Amino acid sequence: MHVLASVDESTYEPDSTIKMGDHPVVWTNPKMKARNIYIFMGHSPDLFDNKAYTTLFQNAILWAAGGTK
Fold first, then answer.
1. 7, 12, 16, 67: which could join 23 in a potential S-S bond, CB 3.0 to 4.6 Å?
2. What are the DSSP calls for 1-58, one per residue?
């Protein structure tokens, strides 16, 4: 797994007593033959109102299609 982004659990609001340690949220798996990117940001359609998320999503599609290295 090649982690591209992870979450700092100390920033959770509200704080949680459950800590999982390393918490990747965007990653690729270079062992897979196809280009795959995993984005674990939730399921809300409101995410598409967020410029950072739409940029990530667009770049992921371009990368998966072979448009960028």
1. 7
2. -EEEEE--GGG-SS--S---S--EEEEE-TTSSS--EEE-S-S-GGGGG-HHHHHHHH
Return the ∠ at Cα 61 (arms to 49 and 45), rounded to 5°: 25
**Alpha-carbon gap, residue 8 to 24, rounded angstroms:** 9
Model pTM above 0.85: no
Token code pair at residue 35: 């280009």
Q: How many CB atoms lie within 10 A of CB 60?
A: 19
- pLDDT tens for the 69 residues of the chain, in order: 999 999 888 887 788 787 777 789 999 999 988 889 999 987 899 999 999 999 999 999 999 888 666
